[in-house]
Design a protein that fits this description.
With 380 residues, the chain is mostly beta strands. The protein has a domain of 168 residues. Helices cover 6% and strands 21% of the residues. The chain has 2 helices and 12 strands, in the order H-H-E-E-E-E-E-E-E-E-E-E-E-E. Strand 5 and strand 6 form a beta hairpin. The longest helix has 14 residues.
């Protein structure tokens, strides 16, 4: 491919004449003179000069060499930009290629030097050698504080706080347990029976006999053996009464739960607020079987005793039952009669320890579709 000779070609030409053309030295000189006329001047051989002919040494004064048009860059010097695109003008916020111009500050605002002098005087914090020095004193050992429980004021929890001390927080809860299954010894067998616990509400105000009982009752009963026909025998392992919202545990021997034989006509025998009461049933289904928890009350005669199943020496003639030693039968009614004259509300604690609502078993309730529970089918 043909090309223009270059400055390096001149050197190569000189090398080619070093040995083989010694006899024609004059001819070589002639050829070299002709080449010097044909070759372009090499960079550095003829520096650019100013109008006076002096070489240019300042880079700012040098002009670019001509660039072939196919390699040229479309570029316009700053001094030829339109006036609305000059760097001093406000940039167009929609244009992604513009220079950011720092706004001019008002004359009365001085630049910040990054020291405390830039902050308001009350915002400069003085360092402290003890970071806990300004904390309030905390009593860490209450045994040395000299405070008694009565000296500590209750927390104000009113609407502006949390609660109002004048608002009734509700009755104290009973210590409800989760009924358990228990294996008992019954001769040659060892059957399993569950605990049976009840929660009742008793509300009686009588003049003859003079009786005034307004209390809730919670009684726990556990199996301990079997009767001759195989029905379980239960004993009360604890009972509590709640009067005016306060819960009190009854003394031992003041409560008893009778499972009621094979027909499960159970009864709760209890002394509460000084009155000996027997909670029993006012309606029975065919076969003389109870169909709901106890729903009425008998007032036992003075001097009667609560049944003590573990005491073989107890005189049962002084115990209060459906058949003896009561002065008021609040369960008395005939088949088809309205509810008993002296009702009570009782529910059995569920297997998971929950307590159903205390609802009147003789009335329908929207929230309890299985009500009414009474009278029993067949109603004896």
């Amino acid at each position: 491919m043909n090309r223009m000779p270059s400055c390096s070609d001149t050197d190569l030409g000189g090398q080619h004449t070093s040995q083989n053309s010694g006899s024609s030295f004059s001819a070589v000189l002639a050829i070299g003179f002709l080449l010097s006329l044909a070759l372009p001047q090499c960079e550095g051989d003829n520096p650019q000069t100013d109008p006076d002919g002096e070489p240019l040494t300042d880079l700012a004064d040098l002009q670019p060499y001509d660039i072939p048009s196919e390699n040229a860059i479309d570029w316009t010097p700053d001094d030829e930009l339109p006036s609305d695109q000059s760097p001093e003008s406000d940039p167009d916020p929609t244009d992604g290629n513009h220079d950011l111009v720092e706004p001019d500050l008002p004359a009365d605002i001085e630049p910040m030097d990054g020291t405390d002098n830039d902050l308001p005087q009350d915002a400069v914090l003085e360092p402290t050698t003890d970071p806990l020095a300004d904390l309030p004193e905390v009593i860490s050992d209450t045994t040395d504080s000299g405070l008694d429980a009565q000296d500590i004021a209750p927390i104000d929890q009113s609407p502006d706080g949390l609660t109002d001390p004048e608002i009734d927080a509700g009755p104290e809860p009973f210590p409800i347990r989760v009924p358990q299954s228990r294996v008992v010894s019954c001769g040659q067998s060892s059957p399993t029976f569950f605990d049976i616990d009840h929660v009742c509400t008793i509300d009686m105000e009588l003049s003859s006999p003079a009786v005034s009982v307004h209390a809730d009752l919670y009684i726990q009963a556990s199996p301990y053996g079997c009767a001759p026909w195989g029905s379980p025998l239960y004993t009360s392992v604890g009972a509590w009464m709640r009067v005016d919202g306060e819960v009190t545990q009854l003394d031992a021997g003041q409560s008893h739960y009778d499972y009621g034989g094979n027909h499960h006509n159970d009864a709760i025998d209890v002394v509460i607020q000084g009155e000996h009461l027997l909670l029993y049933h006012s309606s029975f289904a065919w076969g003389w079987r109870a169909c709901a928890p106890p729903d009425c009350v008998l007032v036992c005669a003075e001097g009667t005793e609560v049944r003590r199943p573990h005491d073989p020496d107890q005189d049962t003639s002084v115990t209060c039952t459906r058949d003896q030693n009561y002065v008021l039968d609040g369960c008395e009614r005939n088949t088809g009669d309205p509810p008993p004259p002296h009702p009570v509300l009782c529910v059995e604690v569920q297997a998971d320890g929950s307590v159903p609502p205390l609802l009147d078993p003789w009335t329908s309730h929207t929230e309890a579709p299985d009500y009414p529970l009474l009278p029993c089918i067949g109603d004896i």
